[in-house]
Amino acid sequence: MAAEAKLRTCSVTGLQVHLPAQKLIMTNAVTAVVFLLIGTVMAILIALTRWPAVHLLNQEFFYRFVTAHGLNMLIFWIIFFEIAGLYFGATILLNARLAKPRVAWACFVLMLLGAALADIMVFTGNADVMFTSYPPLQAHPLYYLGILIFAVGALLACLLFFATLVLAKQEGKYDGALPLVTFGLACAAIIAVWSLAHGALTYVPALLWSVGLMKNIDPAMYRLTYWGIGHGAQQINLVAMIAIWYLLGTLTVGSKVPSQKLSRIAFFLYLPFINLGAIHHLLVDPGLHSPFRIFNTSYAMYLAVVGSMIHAFSIPAGVEIAQRAKGFTTGLFQWLRKAPWGTPGFSSLALSFVIFGFIGGTTGVIQGSEQLNMLAHNTLRIPGHFHTTVVAGTTLAFMGIAYYIIQLVGQRKLIWEKLAKFQPYIFSIGVVIMAVGMLSAGSMGVPRRHWDVTFADANLPVSLGERIYGALGMVGIGGIIAFVGALIFILLAVGSLLKGEKIA
Amino acid sequence: MSISAPERIWWRPLAKEEKIWVIVALCWAIFMFIFMIAWHGAGRQNNPSTTYRITPAVFAQEANDFIAKYKVGEDKGRAIVAPPAGGDAYLISRLWSFDPILVLKKGERYRLHLSSLDLQHGLSIQPMNLNLQILPGYDFVVNITPTEAGEFSLICNEYCGIGHHKMVGKIIVKE
Questions:
Q1: Are the CB atoms for A344 and A400 separated by under 8 Å?
Q2: In whole angstroms, how far apart are CA B29 and each of A262, A367, A395, A482, A485?
Q3: Do B49 and A289 touch (CB under 8 A)?
Q4: Does A5 have pLDDT greater than 70?
Q5: A286: distance to nearest CA of chain B, Å?
Q6: What is the three-class DSSP state of A227?
Q7: pLDDT by residue (tens digit) across A128-172?
Q8: Predicted local confidence at residue A13, as pLDDT
């Protein structure tokens, strides 16, 4: 059969790799890294502008680059990488073939075209509207069109992922339940469909409005549907990251999940409940009443948070069980001390898990409670929260798995393995310093997306106090360290794929 | 292993540690949920939830009438307005200022009307760091009682174009 001829057997894992899927995984992942590079360059320029001692960019470029940073990082880098992850979970982990590689290529082309169009609009100054593009602030129609084209591509890719699962079942590649990682990725894909539908509800009217076919957009309604995609997309990241955590646990120490039942319930809890939390962006908006705010911002009585708490138990427990089975049984923590801290896959897992859980998740739940949100809304506390979730959490976990993808799917050895050992530490230390700086500055009133917090040009004197400068210095210094960490990753990834020794 | 299909029967009962963990997490979740509701009774600061639809033109008219009626002075061209204690007060948000400068009395309650005449803005009252979203087309009514005297800065914390960083205002609270 033709389909059989397109398979190779992985020499490390013994898994069957469908070659067209392999090519798609690598193409999507490499494209993701290119967007990561764009976002990273923007990141350092922004961080150095928010550090008042440097104040690098002029205001026009600052706001333009903040828009570009959000778009390239939160959407393009992460979703391209997630699509690679979905293809990986549906094919390699199931020993299966990808349902329609040609459709997958069409998805890729759509996503790339959409991303390029939106980026061109942003960098040519036609969309200085921030990642949120809140109306009545208006961008060029092609900006909204670009995002819509990208979203259609991503939506089709999710549907292709489901089709591949069905095909694998029909071909008898798995029987009964999916592997946990694929199950988690399937949950992420379901949330992606939900979020992308909100993307359509948001950007189709915005496009019609920008070309003059719709007279008016209600700003409150826009915010409601926008955050369906704006935060929904972050929930895709959360769920995909947790699936990757389980995968990294297995690949690095052979982690054994204590209860498949509990972990699966935890993933399931995200489906009905996690997206309710998107309403925390609207807690201080006009037009909503308290019962609506409370029910939604608590993810229906924090049931989605209970899901996260279950993963917080199961993932380290899985590592502990595996390590103890290897004989590391002395005392309470020998299993942890003897963990492979020099393997970038493991250190990424551990750091991403700890930073996400202890800083990212907690700040999220705190700032998302109805009343406390008044103290955090639109201050630098918000970026402080999400840089520990989506950067030190999701991005770091994706970097960790990328080291495996380069070797197992890309079939190349890492160049500079020693540097790879340090990369997760450098990156996460930088992000933590930066995020703590942001959280403290924000709690002193420093707004997010703001070019000059000294208010030198304002016609009334405003001072947020002297202490903000220490916190903003942390943002700058942490930003530089994180920038170095990200750059090392990009160099390692691209360098290994181009120059790394081939693995047969 | 999380990358291979689970063994046939993967829905075994949970171990004791897992059960305890889940129950503790669940109880904490319910506690936090109830506390968020209880704070409406116990706490003195809650998110305002009175809103009216209004057009920017009508809001501008009402606010300008208010300013003309209660104006007590000027600071660099900005009106200084002292609304009656217990009454309505208006704050206009527009590119790029908050107007007028309000003079309030400590311990008195005001119905503060917030709306924008153009883009979305963010009202951030410093140094107590209270932040509210302001949308055009919506008259957001905040019941506010100043508890300390002094001068408070207003800064915009929703991006509103190139002069965003210049958008400030002031509230003066007198004893």
A1: yes
A2: 17, 15, 28, 34, 36
A3: yes
A4: no
A5: 5
A6: helix
A7: 999 999 999 999 999 999 999 999 999 999 999 999 999 999 998
A8: 79
DSSP output for B48-84: --EEEE--HHHHHHHHHHHHHHHEEEEETTEEEE-PP
Nearest-CA distance A59 → chain B (Å): 7
Token representation of residue A238: 């959360």
Instruction: For residue A91, list chain B residues with Cβ-Cβ distance below 8 A.
Output: none
Model confidence pLDDT, tens digit, residues B77-119: 899 999 999 899 999 999 999 999 999 999 999 999 999 999 9
Q: What percent of chain A has pLDDT over 70?
A: 99
User: Taking residues A187-199, what's their average pLDDT?
Assistant: 95
- What are the pLDDT digits (tens) for A439-497? 999 999 999 999 999 999 998 999 999 999 999 999 999 999 999 999 999 999 999 99
| Rounded-to-integer distance, Cα A392 and Cα A433, Å | 11
Distance (Å) from the alpha carbon of B20 to chain A's nearest alpha carbon: 11
Predicted confidence band of residue A3 (pLDDT cuts 50, 70, 90): very low
Minimal-distance CA residue of chain A relative to B160 = A137
Q: What percent of chain A is helix, strand and coil (3-state, nearest 5)?
A: 70, 0, 25
Q: What is the pLDDT of residue A299?
A: 87
A170 interface with B at CB cutoff 8 Å: no
CB-side neighbour CA atoms (13 Å) of B174: 9
Helix (H) or strand (E) holding B130: strand B130-134
**Cβ-nearest to B3 among A179, A369, A373:** A179
Instruction: Indicate the DSSP class of residue B139.
Output: E
The reply to whether residue A450 touches residue B157, judged by beta carbons under 8 angstroms, is yes
ipTM of the complex model: 0.93
Question: In chain B, which residues have their Cβ closer than 8 Å to the Cβ of A290?
Answer: 40, 46-47, 49
Domain ranges of chain A: 1-176, 340-352+379-504
> How confident is the model over A14-28, as pLDDT tens digits?
888 999 999 999 999
Mutation site for A-interface testing, chosen from B2, B124, B134, B164 by largest number of A Cβ within 10 Å: B2
Of the residues B75, B159, B164, B170, the best mutation for testing chain A's interface (the one with the most A CB atoms within 10 Å of its CB) is B159
Average pLDDT over residues A25-38: 97
For A284, nearest residue in chain B (alpha carbons): B132
Answer yes or no: do B161 and A455 touch at CB < 8 A.
no
Residue with tokens 């935060």: A231
Chain A residues 195-254 with a CB less than 8 Å from chain B: 218-220, 223, 246-247, 249-251, 254
> CB of B91 within 8 A of CB of B123?
yes
Maximum C-alpha span of chain A: 77
Query: Are the C-beta atoms of residues A394 and A318 closer than 8 Å to each other?
Result: no
Place of tokens 């992000």: A431
pLDDT in tens, B122-131: 999 999 999 9
User: What is the pLDDT averaged over residues A324-346?
Assistant: 95
A318 to chain B, any CB pair closer than 8 A? The answer is: yes
DSSP conformation letters of A278-318: GGGGGTT-TT--HHHHHHHHTHHHHHHHHHHHHHHHHHHHH
